[in-house]
Amino acid sequence: MSEFISFLPPPGLALAKYDSAALHTTQSPDVPEVFRDAMSVREDVFVKEQNVALENEVDMDDARSFHWVAYASVGTSSSDSNTAMGGVDKDSATSAENPGRKGSTAMRLPVGTIRLVPPPHPPHPEPGSSQKIDNHEGLPQDMQSGFSKTDMHDGKEAYIKLGRLSVLEAFRKLGLARLLIDAALTWASENGDKILPPRSPAAAEQRRLELGGGAEAEDVWRGLVLVHAQAYLEKYWASFGFIRDSSMGEWEEEKIMHVGMWKRVEVGAQSPVARKSSVVG
Questions:
Q1: What pLDDT score does 217 carry?
Q2: Contacts for 157 with CB less than 8 Å, ≥ 6 apart
Q3: What is the mean pLDDT of residues 199-205?
Q4: Is 148 part of any domain?
Q5: Cβ neighbours of residue 182 under 8 Å, at least 6 residues apart?
Q6: Cα–Cα distance between 15 and 202 in angstroms, integer?
Q7: Which neighbouring-strand residues pair with 244?
Q8: C-alpha angle 205-208-211 in degrees, rounded to nearest 5
Q9: Among 64, 104, 77, 70, residue whose Cα is nearest residue 196
Q10: Does the CA dihedral 9-120-110-239 come out positive or negative?
Q11: Enclosing domain of residue 14
């Protein structure tokens, strides 16, 4: 997307060799570099800071998700090339310009990441339940049967899920999280056909039957977005227009309480997805 934000489409089978019990630095070179960069951030934030088990951090959704990684241009002294300067140019998150200083070089350091998980999804977590991070286990085989209704979701409409938002501690409060969220939502609003490709007639009929026979199958994404937000970050996500779904209650993931929050974004003109003005709920 730019010199300081990289975009990775679903890596699919490229993650087949990813060892979830090992650090990103030891992974096969066949694993996309952008994904390894994303994992470098996720390991620092979730595994080291929040004590998420390393083997739970990579899940089955990673292979089918869209990923973004933000980079900072970090100066290193020519007298000690292994010592990174603690800081980031004020424009480094959005510009490729970094003149540096005499006697110094610059390196791209991954400092933030987010992923977008397309439909389908497993059932919403039960209030008061406890599970591994983000429905890591217990998913229906095809996830087509995982319908669940809430006050703000009819249990049928296709939605996307943002997750794994993380920024290295030294680079927080610089607007990088906002940059990543905006990048993901803007891309989604313009690429509905990539989020939910048209179904074959046979798949559409199967979906119709799963929805009860008489119900219309959801073959388009109409802008509905979900986040499983860590409870203490509810106000932060609310600043982006996400609304808490009280009927989802709270549940525990990796000993951290979570809540469900929804938002509907406008589907852009570049996408063939039908534009509708309905609101959440």
A1: 46
A2: 218, 222, 224
A3: 68
A4: yes
A5: none
A6: 29
A7: 261
A8: 155
A9: 64
A10: positive
A11: 5-264
Alpha-carbon distance of 28 to 76, in angstroms, equals 27
Cα–Cα dist 64/62, whole Å: 6
Under DSSP, is residue 141 helix (H, G, I), strand (E, B) or coil?
A: coil
3-state secondary structure (DSSP) of residue 63: helix
Q: How confident is the model at residue 220 (pLDDT cuts 50, 70, 90)?
A: confident
DSSP 146-208: ----BTTB-S-S--EEEEEEEE-GGGTTSSHHHHHHHHHHHHHHH-HHHHSPPPPHHHHHHHH
Task: Kindly report the CATH number assigned to the domain that includes residue 175.
Answer: 3.40.630.30
Q: Rounded to whole angstroms, how far apart are CA atoms 178 and 176?
A: 5
Contacts of 273 (CB under 8 A, 6+ apart): 192, 193, 196, 220, 221, 222, 267
Note whether residue 270 is domain-resident.
no
Q: How far apart are CA 158 and CA 222, in angstroms?
A: 8
pLDDT in tens, 148-200: 899 999 988 999 999 999 999 999 999 999 999 999 999 999 999 899 876 66
pLDDT tens per residue, range 104-119: 566 899 999 999 999 9
Is residue 273 in some structural domain? Answer: no
Number of domains present in the structure of the chain: 1
Residue 254 lies in a domain: yes
| Integer Cα distance of 233 and 230 in angstroms | 5
Tokens of 230: 């860590």
161 has which bridge partners? 117, 226
